[in-house]
Fold this protein.
Amino acid sequence: MTTITTRTVEYPADGLTMIGHLALPAGVDRRPAVLLGPEGMGLSDVERRRADALAELGYIALAFDLHGGRYLGDPEEMLARCLPLLADPDRMRGIGHAALDVLRTEPRTDPDRIAAVGYGTGGAVGLELGRGGVSLRAIGTVNALTTGRPGEAARIRCPVWAGVGSEDPIMPPAQRNAFTAEMQAAGVDWRLTVYGGALHAFHHPPVDHPVVPGVGYHSLHAQRAWRDVVDLLAECLPVTEGLGA
């Protein structure tokens, strides 16, 4: 296993002091980087471990914060914050840009080789960065089939991969169709993977607090979705690019 280093980073966004988790592979060379967004509950050890796993693969990875260092385990509190956020593209872009600035400021980040990967609300933030015209190598989302303001998806200049559970009541077939229609109309290079029998947040290990209806862990599809994310990065953001390999 590759030796990595990690550190906590604080930065302002959305009127809060965000607390992100930065993971770096061994070495001093510049590397491609991944902006990693959490589900609506907020940054947890699940996303920190994913950032660490990306660093082990050779990426600089920043798991960004949504709620000023808080994890919202109360579903009502989570929805009260996330629903207005998801309805406000400018706020989502502000949160994304603030985290992106931190990632770009890291000396080992190659600013021309960055991808955004996110889950739920964190995935929606990544999509909004793309709709806002940010230059990314790839956007990968799970449980984040959000649609944007009319015409803005045409600003997305990279491949988009999205994953969703077939039984996800929060992202039902009508939402899938709206998302794919938006991507297709905009000429985006898009892919949608539907994981049969999976609910919302199927990728997230069980938690010890209440969750919104329609959420459930599916261990096999969780592994598959992670492999799909890694494959997306290998295709669009190869670690070996620019390293002479």
